[in-house]
Write a structure and sequence with these properties.
The chain has 284 residues and is α/β, with parallel strands linked by helices. The chain has a domain of 191 residues: Pyruvate Kinase, Chain: A, domain 1 (3-Layer(aba) Sandwich). It is built from five helices and five strands, in the order αβαβαβαββα. β2, α3 and β3 form a beta-alpha-beta unit. It is elongated. It starts with a helix and ends with a helix. The mean pLDDT is 85.
């Protein structure tokens, strides 16, 4: 096989890879658009529940449980698939910082996401791993798995802290979920009169906690998955640019080789012509 044919074969292989990566990038873009719509709705649900809890706790602060300082549980939400750059590295760094700052030798760790779990499989404080969602339609199943798994790991009023990509510019944040509404303990009441209730304050508080935890974890999964797909888009965009540059270079090199082949063919023709003219002259 000539050098030019080898270049064509290499171009064909890179072109196929370019199409696959381009398709993956498009799918990530679609997921970001889908997730943004449902995430905005979910955030409003969480905000509504939080507002209701604030109104209730303004007059019934005794309903707030006191968090235990021991045995916190850290839930780290990472990536299920690859091609998203260093998505998991900041999560691991944040986890290590939290464990160090809280003297977390008694803390426990739960990982969600196959790629993240691979980094933590030898961690001495790892309690469980769960599969993560790869697309929006898998978030519900992931939420059910997490809820069932966390129910068996949480005991008493031990703190639950979720570490995930989700702050401004999608930086990593550590968000306490249990005990719920702890930051409302010292906030003043928003209204002059207590809300009128059809159930006891304790029953309403329990219902609010259940609904809030479910909705907040739902929101966090949406936010984390959207951040993952957004970073995947950026990562694959860099790969596409690199492949395009390689393909252009190969095309340029192929054209150069073709020009060299043409020049060689012309030289052969000229040599043959000169040889034929010389033979004619000798015959005469």
């Amino acid at each position: 096989m000539s050098r030019r044919h080898e270049l064509r074969h290499h171009q064909s292989q890179l072109g196929e890879a370019r199409q696959i990566i381009g398709a993956m990038q498009s799918l990530a873009f679609i997921e970001v658009r889908r997730l943004r719509k449902v995430m905005e709705i979910q955030q409003k649900v969480v905000a509504g529940l939080y507002s209701a809890a604030r109104d209730l706790l303004g007059f019934h602060r005794e309903l707030l449980p006191v968090a235990q300082a021991e045995n916190p549980l850290y839930l780290v939400l990472g990536s299920e698939r690859g091609f998203c750059g260093d998505f998991n590295e900041p999560l691991l760094q944040t986890l290590q910082r939290c464990l160090t700052e809280s003297a977390g030798e008694h803390a426990r760790v739960v990982a969600c996401g196959r790629k993240l779990s691979g980094h933590l499989e030898t961690h001495p404080q790892l309690q469980a791993t769960f599969e993560g969602a790869t697309v929006l339609d898998e978030v519900e199943d992931t939420l059910i798995r997490l809820a069932n798994g966390l129910a068996g790991l949480l005991n008493g009023d031990a703190p639950l802290i979720v570490i995930y990509h989700g702050g401004a510019d999608e930086e990593v944040i550590a968000r306490p979920l249990l005990p719920p509404f702890a930051e409302l303990r010292d906030q003043p009441a928003q209204f002059a009169y207590a809300p009128q209730l059809y159930v006891t304050p304790a029953q309403l508080m329990q219902d609010l906690v259940d609904q809030y935890l479910f909705a907040a974890l739902h929101e966090i999964l949406y936010v984390s998955l959207m951040a993952e797909n957004h970073l995947r888009m950026q990562h694959l965009e860099g790969a596409v640019r690199h492949l395009d540059k390689r393909l252009n270079n190969l095309k340029t090199r192929e054209n150069q080789l073709r020009q060299e082949e043409i020049i060689e063919e012309i030289e052969v023709i000229l040599l043959n012509a000169e040889s034929g003219a010389s033979s004619d002259f000798n015959v005469d």
